[in-house]
Automatic annotation (TrEMBL):
GO terms for biological process: immune response. Transmembrane segments: none annotated. One of its GO terms (cellular component) is extracellular space. This is CC chemokine. It comes from the Eukaryota. Residues 32-85 form the Chemokine interleukin-8-like domain. Keywords: Cytokine, Signal. Coiled coil: none annotated. One of its GO terms (molecular function) is chemokine activity. The keyword Signal applies. Residues 1-27 form the signal peptide. The keyword Zinc does not apply. It comes from Oncorhynchus mykiss (Rainbow trout).
């Protein structure tokens, strides 16, 4: 029994098999990003945040990290999201500019 009846038929069969394999691979791929976002306000303490830019399948989002280790994808246009992100950035910058006192090296004469 012959699988291909000519070069074009073999090429078409190969293309179909390749597309089915690629589709299955994409469907089962795990994405470590936000593919959807929530507009619901977070009620648990937030300890960190980062921005995510759109790069399909990932969407524009602010990713908040809570004190219980959960990550929450929030809609970047929500006013509470912008306010919380700004407050976290201000706190981080404030910590970055503080001069460490407890662990400062001391010099002796």
């Amino acid at each position: 029994m012959q699988l291909c009846y000519g070069p074009m038929a073999c090429l078409a069969l190969f293309a179909v098999i390749l597309s089915l394999t690629a589709t299955d691979t994409d469907a089962n791929k795990v994405h470590n990003c936000c593919t959807k976002v929530s507009k619901q306000k977070i009620t648990v303490p937030i300890i960190g945040a980062r921005l995510q830019r759109k790069a399909l399948p990932c969407v524009n989002a602010v990713i908040f990290e809570t004190d219980n280790g959960e990550t929450i994808c929030s809609h970047w246009k929500e006013s509470w999201v912008r306010k919380a992100f700004f407050q976290l950035e201000m706190a981080r910058k404030s910590l970055d500019t503080q001069v460490p006192t407890a662990n400062s090296p001391t010099t002796s004469p």
